[in-house]
Give the backbone structure.
Amino acid sequence: MLLTVTRMRRKLPAASESVTHLGMHLREMGWSPLGSTVAHRGAELALGQPTPSSTLYELTNASFNDDFVFLVGGVLYFSLESERGDAEKRSTLEAGAIHELGTPPPAELARLTSSLDAALARLTGEAAKSGSNGGTWQELPWHPLSAAFSTLRERTLKQAGGSVSAGFPDFPEEVRQALRVLEDPERRKLALRIKASEPLFVVREQEADSLNVASDALVDSGLAIRKILVRCRKRSDVNLALLSTEDPARLEGECPHCRTKLRDEQFLKGLAPTPLGSNLLDHSHWMTSRVAQSLRNCGVPPEDVLTEVSTEGGELDFLVSLYGSLAVMELKDRTFGLDDARDLFDRYLRFGAQELIAVTTETIAPEARRRLEEAVRAVPRQPAPSITFVEGLAEMDAKVRLVVQRANWRAVARLLDKVASAAMPLDAKALVAAKFGIPISKDRRARRASAGAGFDETMHEYLDLMAEVDVKSYS
């Protein structure tokens, strides 16, 4: 699952309001913060019975402080930020919804902005505003972008004279079909033989039967075309014409070397590459296109991808900004060896990537895998990058989707770190991940070690119990 964030923001005339005061008014309007909802449910789980009224009061009386509200279709939040301008200190109020990509934001987001408008009116004495947004809220895009990627893209734009092609096109169906055919090793091998044998690849009689299926697939997908080569019978090194299969009966004229009529010369049936086939096979461009298609299928926009870019350190196969995380990809239409691992590691050091992806049509050499993992572990950078090995294109789509999902969650987690209150006694990231079914590691010992004062053993037991329960029941 991929998540997105719908963000609404409005500027405030002064910095006098506080999140605590806004939260008090929101509670009066019927909003319940995540802290009270989860704590209430946790108490019932721990006690095995309805929570006593005295305990319930203690658990739910906490302040609504940069907190979250869980809903069936998403998670709402609000935060208040202060910024100092030329004349005075001003505040910005943001309300947002975290929800599944491709779905509309929860309808309650409009109710939250309306409630915040009403709370501000009470606090500042403004006249009540009509409508849910009062004409003051603006929707902001959520498009996290890697700083290293932005820098390299700007440099590439300058070198290209202000224009650089998009990372990949929207492939038409005939190209997608051709890419699917080239994924098959036997068909790709035959396509390369056809290209290397221009103007015509003549199928030898002894291998005709074994190549029938592959040749039919190449022709049907537009990668090759059946042709007839007219060759001088006396001089076998002289090709006279390359014709379509319908032309020989209408052939006129004679051979300039032996004066034999052309229709009586030697006719060889074979296969020739089409322009599409030649283009995709040049420099393994088919593989670049296939990876680009996989990224597009995962929702990565073209402007977040740089392909086949020449830099001071050599040519980059792929540099991708995935929701603000930088991914470096190395593509090989052969075994991924030790030198390839060194190249990928060098690019990690240079760009500070969070995702390293090695893609090969064959296998990753064991020594290359081991040395790359050891080299990355030896670099004192935290967090350490994730390494993904793709052996064979059959598993590429699934593995690329996992990388994109990981980067997507990383971006949501950064947002949660930004808007969650430092005093919040709950792991907002773990709860949001559980709500949307996103698998993340749970280190309970680390949570206990980092808990602040007042976070007693009873609350830890609540959270341990809640880690085993579907958080959707808290909505």
About this structure: Residues 174-280 form one domain. The chain has three domains: 3-142+428-474, 147-170+283-410, 174-280.
